[in-house]
């Protein structure tokens, strides 16, 4: 008789991280990102919901990076929209549009643990 093998079920945190990795590049501090998402479950939902407004503001095809930053007092997640050195738009204006259209209405849900910004890659 064949032996039954139990397949481990993916936990909620693993599913959330897998879903986020479809839209975001998560920094090498993956454990710290996972820890912050576990401490503040609303952050995962906010990150998922932010993808479309970020793309609306900065354009499709932009790399979205998430990394954890830690200070003496607390930790937070930073999302950076990666823009090429020859970005033909106004990055500050794009961030302002994102803020006005979506982030200001939703930032209270982050408990101060999430920051959105952009980074312009160096031209080589």
Description:
With 124 residues, this protein is α/β, with parallel strands linked by helices. It is 42% helix and 21% strand. It has helices at residues 12-20, 30-39, 42-58, 91-106, and strands at 25-26, 63-70, 75-83, 114-120. It has a four-stranded mixed β-sheet with strand order 1-2-3-4. α3 (42-58) runs antiparallel to α4 (91-106). The radius of gyration is 17 Å and the shape is globular. The termini are far apart.
Please give the structural blueprint:
Blueprint: H1 12-20, E1 25-26, H2 30-39, H3 42-58, E2 63-70, E3 75-83, H4 91-106, E4 114-120
Parallel strand pairs: 1-2, 3-4
Antiparallel strand pairs: 2-3
Shape: globular
**Main sheet specs:** 4 strands, mixed
Helix and strand content put the structural class at: alpha/beta
Strand order of the largest sheet: 1-2-3-4
In the CATH hierarchy, the third-tier topology is known as GMP Synthetase, Chain A, domain 3
Strand content: 15-25%
Radius of gyration: 17 Å
Could you estimate the helical fraction of the residues in percent?
40-55%
Report the count of strand segments.
4
What is the end-to-end distance? 63 Å
Number of domains: 1
SSE order, as H and E?
A: HEHHEEHE
CATH architecture: 2-Layer Sandwich
- The pLDDT mean sits at 86
Low-confidence stretches are none
CATH class: Alpha Beta
Specify the number of helices: 4
